[in-house]
Specification:
Layout: H1 8-19, E1 23-24, E2 31-32, E3 37-38, E4 44-45, E5 52-56, E6 67-71, E7 85-86, H2 94-108, H3 116-134, E8 138-139, H4 142-148, H5 155-173, H6 179-207, H7 212-223, E9 236-237, E10 243-244, H8 247-253, H9 255-258, H10 260-267, H11 295-303
Antiparallel strand pairs: 1-4, 2-3, 5-6, 7-8, 9-10
Helix pairs in contact: 2-3, 5-6
């Protein structure tokens, strides 16, 4: 594209495009080599009436610079935008917070005429008001949301990332001067971030070695599996083969299952030992590997299930 004057094939290609009323929106190099600069990423349009903004971003996400095109849309924006809010709890002065909470509760809960429910409501509202005063809910910035997804990125890592981006900007302006320095620094920074991520999850597995729920939550976080919200059934069939749609009636019809656990617990012998007493011989490993599951294994497991037992279903 940038050598249309010297290459007749490129010139012929551009002539065929422009003859149809189209033109390219990107006219700067999008791939910078050590000794070359080429334009391989094209945006074409034949719309001459709608305002269009195009450009190139300075980012090392790949060996090609990202390109963008903004087209003015007349569709009204979606107004229901949800923002994540958070509190900076680490900025709370614990001693001052506790003293204020104590003084307010001493004055408000000293009335003898208050019932238990009123006192509890007063406690909750007082705590919430103080929390809003010392650590109000604020909207997370885009950088904070991004860092929350990568908790192993420290402030020192952010300084290194900014330095890497500055080196890349120098390449975009004068790509022959800082290419080698940028490549070496990028490789070193990638190794550091990989090691930090590895140490972070190794610490979590060590901390949660006796908590299977948090261990599986960490595994799901690694593989990118999101927790699916369980929907409450709107219609169920009770034991009399009748449809039940009222939520209160659904709870009453299935209250039998709420009594299963207490009845089973009553049959267990009493013991003074904690549950983690039986988990002392667990061997902790630094890594693990999940073997792939094949179709024949699943078929064999299903065929070997005991069809006479209701637990098998």
């Amino acid at each position: 594209m940038l050598q249309s004057d010297a290459n007749h094939k490129i010139a012929s290609y551009l002539n065929s495009v422009t003859s149809s009323g189209s033109f390219c929106l990107i006219d700067k190099p999008t791939r910078l080599g050590e000794w070359s600069a080429t334009l391989l990423d094209h945006f074409y349009t034949n719309n001459l009436t709608t305002p269009i903004t195009s450009g190139i971003l300075e980012s090392d996400i790949s060996d090609h610079l990202p390109t963008f095109v903004l087209i003015r849309s007349y569709i009204p924006p979606y107004s229901s935008v949800s923002y994540k809010l958070r509190r900076h709890l680490n900025k709370i002065g614990c001693e001052q917070f506790n003293n204020e909470l104590y003084d307010i509760l001493q004055n408000n809960l000293s009335h003898n005429g208050m019932g238990v429910h009123q006192k509890f409501d007063t406690l909750v509202s007082t705590f919430k008001n103080l929390l809003d005063k010392h650590a109000p809910l604020i909207r997370q910035s885009r950088r904070e949301r991004k860092l929350a997804q990568k908790p192993w990125i420290t402030k020192a890592s952010m300084v290194s990332i900014r330095h890497k981006n500055r080196l890349f900007s120098k390449i975009c302006k004068n790509h022959t001067s800082a290419t080698n320095a940028y490549k070496k620094y990028r490789i070193l920074l990638t190794r550091i971030k990989y090691k930090a991520k590895q140490n972070y999850y190794q610490y979590l597995f060590s901390a949660y070695q006796k908590n299977s729920s948090k261990t599986w939550a960490t595994i799901h976080d690694i593989i990118g599996k999101k927790k699916e919200a369980s929907a409450i059934p709107k219609v169920v069939i009770n034991q009399d083969n009748q449809k039940v749609t009222n939520l209160a009636n659904i709870c009453n019809d299935f209250k039998f299952f709420a009594s299963v656990a207490p009845k089973m617990a009553d049959r267990l012998p009493l013991s003074n030992l904690r549950s983690d007493h039986y988990m002392t011989d667990i061997n902790q490993c630094e890594s693990f590997f999940l073997q792939p599951v094949f179709e024949d294994e699943i078929r064999n497991l299903i065929n070997n299930l005991d069809t006479q037992s209701h637990w098998s279903g």
